[in-house]
Amino acid sequence: MRVTRREFSKLGAMGLAARMLPVVSAGAQSGERKVGYCVIGLGTIADHFMRGVQGSSNSKITGLVSGHRDKAERIAAQYGVPKSSIYSYEDMDKFRDNKMIDAVYVALPNSMHAEYTIRSAKAGKHVLCEKPMSTTVSEAEAMIAACRDAKVQLMIAYRLHYDPLHLKAVKLIKDGALGKVQTINGAFGFDASPTAWRLNKALAGGGSLFDVGIYVVNACRYLTGEEPVKFTAVTSTIDQDGRFSTMEENVSWTMKFPSGVLATGSSTYGAQMPGYFKVFASKGWMEMSSAYGYDGAKLRASFWGGEKGSPHMEIDEASTEKDPVQFTREADHFSGCVLNNKVPKSSGEEGLRDMKYIEEIYAAAGTVQG
Ligand code: NDP
Question: Which of 197, 221, 318, 333 has most Cβ atoms within 10 angstroms of its Cβ?
Fold first, then answer.
């Protein structure tokens, strides 16, 4: 039986949708109702995620997909994953019959996200996919369609959507504490190694905007609660050292929001650029530095409480949380959605919006991506 998304929401309200979604396997739950994750691609971010899952009350690692069997066996032993639940990229689809695997975590280079999300959905697995969701808008749309058709949940791993300090920053603006926001400024970047897949456009999709600039684009959207409508942008490459033969080194952009808020952002693969955002509003300002890291973020703000002039409020708050707690929270959220048939806060549609804005920014800069 095929149902549209609208019909499906209606069924949800009637308590019937649950019956149509893949049931979390009894094996994975074993009385504890834990969602079993198969991690696809065992690199840096997968390590953070797997450590994070260890702190989760409703998630566990139950499968691995890797091009390196030795590494996968070592990690499997660490997380108690049976050897029979280790797959290669070629034979991964066999996990369709593995009742211990309810969901996948796609932690591959950007251009592989679409293929592995779609294959996982077709195998009946819920999908938590790393950002950027894909390398083109059309891929992102195909991922959403595949998950919808397979009736599995799709979440994009925007871990900061669940971070208390970011949520506090959003609330300060939403509650009007800062007054009317006028401009936002943000940046994020690093000096990329010449051997990184990130400098290979076929794997990365494009430059630092896909990888780290996306944090700034996304933050400006959740801080304002608006969607940008106009874009200007410019790119440049300073280092002629062979690293930037397929992509730009630097990109700066402006986004105009419907309220008139102007957000400017920059990202780079040529300099250490600690991530931050600064918000300037009618009653004061707010900034977060180390805004996009795994821990150690600081929120500072200074604004007038009532009439201009008095009383004066100051916020100077450092997060005391340590890596990998952001990943624990991310896994908790997605597993909760899988167990309760809820659409994740950072859904596929949310990832798609950023893909559209990335394409707009590159188009404004006169650089064709994808
Ligand atoms: P890594 O290079 O550290 O890991 C990627 C893994 O993908 C590799 O270890 C490898 O696993 C697998 N892989 C398969 N094919 C290839 C290939 N052709 N080239 C390279 N690796 C391949 O990357 P990251 O973990 O840093 O990034 C992975 C994804 O996570 C990216 O989309 C990135 O944007 C995102 N990311 C998200 C972050 C966040 O905070 N949310 C932070 C960092 C990255 P194996 O050896 O097991 O086959």
Answer: 333
